[in-house]
Design a protein that fits this description.
This protein is an alpha+beta fold and about 300 residues long. It folds into 3 domains: about 110 residues, Arc Repressor Mutant, subunit A (Orthogonal Bundle), CATH 1.10.10; about 80 residues, no CATH class; about 100 residues, no CATH class. The chain is built from 11 helices and 10 strands. The strands form 4 sheets. It has a 3-stranded antiparallel beta sheet with strand order 1-3-2. The protein is globular and about 70 Å long. The protein starts with a helix and ends in a 9-residue tail after the last strand.
Length: about 300
Amino acid sequence: MNLFELQQFLNHTMQMTDVYQPVVIKALLLNNGQSSKDALAAALADYDIAVRDYYHKVLMRWPKITLTKHSVIRYENSGKQFILNCNLDDEDQRLKTVALCDAKIEEWIERTKTREKDPVANASVRYRVLKNAGGKCELCGIPSSLRPIDIDHVIPQSKADKFRKVVLHGKHINVNAEENLQALCDKCNRAKRDADDTDFRRLETLLRDKEPQLMRDDGHKPRVEQLRGARLKEALAEKLVEGHENNLNKKELDKLADMTEVILALAGTLGLTQTEFLDHVNTQRITLGGFTQGYLYSGDEPVAASLAA
């Protein structure tokens, strides 16, 4: 990719849901094409008031995934370095591209400049909302250690009147009042958008190893993706929090042992001894398999229309 192609990406290909992508590209341009994760997280923080850990999560999701997909950047795990896939020999073109990033950033700020007056932009308000939520998504319960948590408007800003007022629980309040703010993970927040009726059910779930074939045997056509590595670990962690709101901030052996004890205690409330419960676990494993293969189910393939008359 040359700088002209990068400019074309910025002008025509890039779709911005936030200011992240041009900030990352600009920072790389200004640092001879590469930068550390810490430095880029700091660059993002310059355009939004948030803790650095939060932007580490942001950085490694949207801008990293999107810019890598478009071959704009690459990421080297060994040194935790982001590298711009672009020849920077032409200084005039480099500065022109930096200016284009500035223009894109300013364009975003202009479109959302009301945020500057919003309480949601206040770090102390953000901190209180996250603290009150226990650092977890207030809809699905997933902790911030597993998924970035955003500050969301309960009544969307798009539904505010010309005085920036909304009605919440029969009370007229400013759309950015703290009582209209909630903590949502990025997945729930994207699902919610400005919709009045939102389905917050999980549309994907990790299956036991033998379940995809059992579903096929039963006439279904499951869409299944087999996960590996970090994605499998994340899916296993999410599977553990699907039925409860236990916080898994510490990914340690002792924490897993604690969770096992909780599960055994829950089995005891059903009248099962530890031996009986473990026998049931083994029976399920023999019948359905475990969760080691990483099959992620997202619904059945559409059934083809019958050609019969």
